[in-house]
Fold these 2 entries.
Entry 1:
Amino acid sequence: MVDFRGYIVLFFVWLVSTILVRSIFRRSKTTSSLPPSPMALPIIGHLHLLAPIPHQALHKLSIRYGPLIHLFIGSVPCIVACSPETAKEILKTHETSFCDRPISAAVDYLTYGSADFSFAPYGPYWKFMKKLCMTQLLGGQTLNQFIPIRSEEIWRFMQLMLKKAKASEAVDVGKELIRLTNNVVSRMTMGQICSINDKEADEVRKLVQETAELAGKFNLQDYIWFCKNIDLQGFGKRLKEVRRKFDNMMERILKEHQEARKINKETGKDYAPMDLLDMLLDISEDESSEIKLTRENIKAFILDIFAAGTDTSAITVEWALAELINHPDMMKKTREEIDSVVGKSRLVEESDIINLPYLQALVKETLRLHPTGPMSVRESTENCTINGYEIPARTRVFINVWAINRDPNHWETPLEFCPERFIAEDGKSQLDVRGQHYHYIPFGSGRRACPGTTLALHMVHSTLAAMIQCFDWEVIGGNGTRVDMEEGTGLTLPRAHPLICVPITRINPFPLS
Ligand code: HEM
């Protein structure tokens, strides 16, 4: 027994001294040329400084330590860029050194060994998929082909709101919006399946939510070197279960698609791809394709689109509505604009958006203060010098989009919600969202910027416009009129408290239905 205790004491002495030697060695080897850094703790590094909401905590640190900070999350070296100037250095001047994304154990497992697009290293496969996204999968022609899907789903959502309004029932706005965007993405990627069957749609939604949660969870195995092979938090079992369910669903849908394609071929019917899965299957069967898409690539790509494309757009609409409820003058102005362009006898459509500059400015201002990708994460692929500091290869890079979008050196009264800042003198909406201006990068910037920007803007504008055109929104809870704007925790900047409202019908553009 005494011997055993002795071994335990020896083990702890060894552990503590190893940690100290590692941290001293790490410091003396690197501190001179790295960006400023707060004091780190052994083992966890600066992890304790990131709570409760990382982008907010990092913003506070940057006020004290400057726009480029060096941190250790556990034993992983990181830098954080919190100003437009440092973001430009990383995203433009030295772009090619920062085109990779770090891959966690959970992401690697969920994406079939990083067979996806969002986390693929910057190389031939990523370039092939990016081109495909921009020209086919998420390109203008495909998005036009799917206009009926988006209008039908908005129509279904509005019918539900009408029903709630009639019964004076409260709605969890965010939850219903996620249902809407999930239906749109499901139908675009895999066809009718999910929208016909509500139970199936709910299952997909739960699966996507759990995937996002697991991918975003802090996993000790990724950050603490001696936990690398120990699953102390028990994530392994949950990951296996989620991937098993997702894989079963995808295999079933893939088989259905393949059978339908076979019948089409046999009967010699005219064939046009119906959804993204069809397009991906076409490419995977194309012998002359420069890259052969595997079944894993296809499944992982679909997962990417769900994970990146559903919550982000839904939560943006929820934040925009919350801001409008708190700013009745802006609600009135947006409504007047919609009424004057669209009238009161039909529902606003995607094609109207171009004529609604105030609505566009409103969405831009929402994306400035509430960017649903609050931090863009990259990894350096080679040694690089930024602002005179040496950034070693394999350093994790956080671009704090949330902090940059409210930088007081670039924005007047940055914390105020003011869509007018996006209206040019000629009355048109100004300042593009696509990463050309480094003080406003809600969709990131450069080669790895968001490929879903156009789809997201279509969804956000038309859903929000329809909600404003047809309903007043009476807030339940809080003080009854003002909505609490506290941020919650999560990868996509969710609200801390759900937005619960009773819709009150203002105009009903579906009188006969
Ligand atoms: C309001 C909605 C959205 C916001 C705010 C948003 C924001 C972002 C941001 C900040 C990034 C990282 C960019 C970078 O590293 O520079 C990103 C990447 C990405 N987004 Fe979006 N996004 C939205 C909607 C969508 C939609 C609708 C889709 C697809 C259907 C999508 C697909 C992706 C993909 C695949 C990536 C990874 C790209 C790559 O690694 O090359 N996003 N998004």
Note: The domain at 32-505 is CATH 1.10.630.10 (Cytochrome p450).
Entry 2:
Amino acid sequence: MIRQKLDAAAISTRLSELQGWTLTDDGTSIEKHFVFRNFSEAFGFMTQCALAAEKLDHHPEWSNVYRKVHVKLTTHSADGLTELDFQLAVLMDRAVRDAA
Ligand SMILES: C[C@H](O)[C@H](O)[C@H]1CNC2=NC(N)=NC(=O)C2=N1
């Protein structure tokens, strides 16, 4: 199931397929710091991700300061990481290319 909590081995495999994402100390989230050229690119990225997240019915915890966006992904209902978090991470990495 897509909303089923992943075990440590699955998390480590999925994480190794990504770049720039790290596991938080408590093991329940992955996070990444994105840096863009300017605020417009950062906000364009967030807009695209917001629409993708809504379609996926899976939403990021994030914050933006000028040209930086900090993203933390976790599945609240599973109290940990699920396949959905990794799907959203892949979508976000793809959105970076479109923002440029
Ligand atoms: C009803 C709806 O499917 C749920 O509330 C979804 C919405 N988005 C979500 N996003 C995240 N990150 N975790 C959730 O558990 C979650 N649940």
Note: Residues 8-99 form a domain with the Gyrase A; domain 2 fold (CATH 3.30.1360.20).
